[in-house]
Amino acid sequence: MASIRALVLNCTLKRSPAPSSSEVLGREVLDALADQGVEGDLVRVVDHDVRFGVSTDEGDGDGWPDIRTRLLAARILVIATPIWLGQPSSVCKMVLERLDAELSETDEQGRLLTYGKVGAVAVVGNEDGAHHTIGQVQQALNEVGFTCPAAAATYWVGEALHKTDYRDAGPKPDTTGRTTSALALNSAHLARLLAEQPYPPPDTRHAATGPRPESG
């Protein structure tokens, strides 16, 4: 059985050691993955000097290359993000923009380095918008080469205008626990399948090559 590692990128706006509900849910995902024999780590992105950009290294002390090294060593990537104004956090969007660079990074057979990696999402918030946020993040991950398995998302949202965070919500809802377990089970299963049977190299007669043009 293939050895599988996971990486959770916590896209909270809060630097450590401030408490983070996204981190709580992200670590619950890691615990569920551990039940499936998957080891993993969590990185709080704002604790690193990640620059805005769409390259693998923006230079001048950019913190993304170190995170990217850990990402490439993992088979499962989980994006954990809060909801702000019904949207993924700005940190989450920055991470997705940095992942855009992977469209130009290929192996010796012409496959994206992200091919064969599994993408999943964990969302917390005190307002509606979880499905919208999950849809945005999953589509972006798929577009840059990740494969999203069935039920590859877990979330918790409180009542609109409510002040309770997930980390303070007391007994966690069974629905969130079930979706977290399903995320871990299906992500580990798919990651092992893709490790044992990788995607085929692209048909170079028809495949588009090179980075997409910048939009602004």
UniProtKB/TrEMBL annotation:
<feature type="domain" description="NADPH-dependent FMN reductase-like">
    <location>
        <begin position="6"/>
        <end position="150"/>
    </location>
</feature>
<feature type="region of interest" description="Disordered">
    <location>
        <begin position="195"/>
        <end position="216"/>
    </location>
</feature>
<dbReference type="GO" id="GO:0016491">
    <property type="term" value="F:oxidoreductase activity"/>
</dbReference>
<protein>
    <submittedName>
        <fullName>NADPH-dependent oxidoreductase</fullName>
    </submittedName>
</protein>
<dbReference type="InterPro" id="IPR005025">
    <property type="entry name" value="FMN_Rdtase-like_dom"/>
</dbReference>
<dbReference type="Pfam" id="PF03358">
    <property type="entry name" value="FMN_red"/>
</dbReference>
<dbReference type="InterPro" id="IPR029039">
    <property type="entry name" value="Flavoprotein-like_sf"/>
</dbReference>
